[in-house]
Amino acid sequence: MTATTKRAKKSAAKRERKERRFTAEPTYSSRLPTFAGMAGALVLGAGVYGAWLRPQPLDYATYLLGAGAVVFGLALWRGNAEIGELRVGDAGVALEKGNDLVRILWCDIEKVSITDGVCTVRGKEATLAFPLAAHPKAARWLLTEGGRRVPDVISVPRTEVERLGEPKEFDGELVTIEDLQVAGRHCKASGKPISFERDARLCPTCGESYLKDHVPKKCLTCQSELGNRAREA
C-alpha cells in the first residue's frame, strides 16, 4: 500500500462530522410570550399617547413607556429562548438553549413520534420535544435522516411525513460537530468502556461506538455494513 493511499484512508476515516442548525420560525411564538408581548405593546402604546399625543400629558406616562418597553423586550427574548435551536445531522438530534446542549445520538434514539403538533424524540437517557410550528424544517430533516439511518424508531404516520414535505438542501445552517464526546461510552460489541477517543470507532450511519479491536462487519444497532467504514472518533 502506498503512502498516498494510507493518507487517503486516514483522511476518510477522520473526516469531519456535520449537522444542520435550525432556528425557530420567525412567525412562531408560544402563548405566554405572545400574550406578554401584546400586553407590553399596549402599555407602551398607552405611554406614547400619554406622553406625547394627549393634550395634557400624564405624569406617569414615562413609567408606562419604560414598563411597556421592558415587558415587550422580555417577551421577544423569552419567546426565542423558550424554543431553542435544533440540530440534526451525523451526531443525531440536539436541542440548544443558550449554553446548554442536549444531544441524542441516532443509536440512542428509542422512538420519534408526533402528537398534537409536537415532535418528541425519546432517547435512552434523555427526551427532546419541540412544536412542529416552530421547527418544520428541522422536523422534516429529522424524519428523513432518521428514516435512512434508524428507520425502526420512526413512529410517525406517512401522511404526517408527506405533509411536512421534502427537506431542502439550503435548510438550516451547515456546521461542524465539535462537541461530540465518545470517551465514557461502552463498546456495543464487547461491553467494555471506551477510555480514550483514539481507541473508539464509530458507525457512520447511526454513530454507535466500538473499540477499535472489536469492530464487527455489521453495526449491531442499525445493521449497516461496517468493517473498514467505521470512523475514528
Number of discrete helical segments: 5
Order of helices and strands: HEHHEEEEEEHEHEEEE
What is the end-to-end distance? Answer: 24 Å
Can you give the helix content as a percent range? 25-40%
Number of domains: 3
Task: Categorize the overall geometry.
Answer: elongated
What does this structure look like?
The chain is α+β, with helices and mostly antiparallel strands and 233 residues long. It is 33% helix and 23% strand. It has 3 domains: 1-16 and 180-233, Herpes Virus-1 (2-Layer Sandwich), CATH 3.30.40; 18-24 and 84-176, PH-domain like; 31-82. The chain has helices at 3-13, 31-53, 61-83, 136-149, 158-164; strands spanning 18-22, 85-89, 92-97, 100-104, 109-115, 118-123, 127-131, 154-155, 173-176, 200-202, 209-211, 231-232.
Task: Please summarize what this structure is.
By secondary structure, this protein is α+β, with helices and mostly antiparallel strands. It is built from five helices and twelve strands.
Layout of strands and helices, then pairs:
Layout: H1 3-13, E1 18-22, H2 31-53, H3 61-83, E2 85-89, E3 92-97, E4 100-104, E5 109-115, E6 118-123, E7 127-131, H4 136-149, E8 154-155, H5 158-164, E9 173-176, E10 200-202, E11 209-211, E12 231-232
Parallel strand pairs: 5-8
Antiparallel strand pairs: 1-2, 1-9, 2-3, 3-4, 5-6, 6-7, 10-11, 10-12
Helix pairs in contact: 2-3
